[in-house]
Amino acid sequence: MKPSIYVAKKVPGEVAEYLEAHCEVRYWNGNEAITKEQLIEEIGDAEGVLLSGTPVTSEVIAAAPRLRVISNNAVGYNNLRLEPIIARGILATHTPHVLDETVADLAFALILAAGRRVTELHAWVREGRWKKGQEEELYGLDIHHATLGIIGMGRIGEAIARRARFGFEMNVQYYNRNRKPDVEEKLGVTYVGLDELLATSDYVLLMLPLTPETRGMIGAREFGLMKQTAVFVNVARGPIVDESALYDALAQRTIYAAGLDVYAQEPIDPAHPLLTLPNVVTLPHIGSATSATRMEMASLAARNLVHALQGKSDIALIPELRNV
Ligand code: DGY
Q1: Total domain count for the chain?
Q2: Residue 324: its pLDDT value, please?
Q3: Residue 185 is part of which domain span?
Q4: In Å, how far are 131, 133, 155, 231 from 123, measured between CA atoms?
Q5: Among the four 56, 193, 233, 239, which has the fewest Cβ within 10 Å?
Q6: Strand partners, 91
Q7: What is the pLDDT of residues 283-302, one digit of tens each?
């Protein structure tokens, strides 16, 4: 008998066909992303679930007595509460590797847009504010040969460093829980302490997972250490940053600009103070959002789910489960 699964997010047709070939599938058909409460109502019989971003808490686990596999259709898995998952012996997988280059591209889009004021000046042209004779008012900051500080040197951090070193000839320094001598040698990047990185980088880029240790890690003290000309870019997770401290730093121009793809609350409230600032470039959490990469992520998430249910070992387990 095929295992029963619940697919709690939209997947491409080919991925649905693959899942249906191996499983009895039920789908979430709502137009909006499924909530935790809706997931609890839907998941009762499921042995496997495919989802993205929905919180999987003790309540969700308790509502699904047959659940054996959670396939998270994202590389970040801060939506999963690990204790109840580990306690029940459930397998949890994610989608590493396939999005690294795509997220690195978007990080660069934000570096360029914030440094060269692309969205701000785009609005100027449309609003008829471009006048002959304007000079310094239009100036931005160089990217080439500037110093990029990457906080978090995982695979995506490496892909960003490669673009920075070999595309823009930037000096790249990084801070990471573990030093990476192989990456230092391969890419010509330098390891520094966090405070030194904050104080000496022209671009400060956050690329860490959200964990209890990283939540709130960048706040008023950290923004206070940055240069007045620093550009801050976050393509990781919003809650790592204290947004009111970021607002103060940008509004008071103690830093130059920010490029943001992620927020404490998503979608961000359109009335959020950060969105009133001209020196903020904002995107709606689209780091991995190209057609090709989202297809790869959905395919990997589906394969992880089916293979885990079949007891195969070629699945991308989340790191915390690899040695359990
Ligand atoms: C990821 O895969 O973690 C991206 O941020 C999309 O959520």
Answers
A1: 2
A2: 76
A3: 100-282
A4: 13, 18, 34, 20
A5: 193
A6: 69
A7: 999 999 999 999 999 999 99
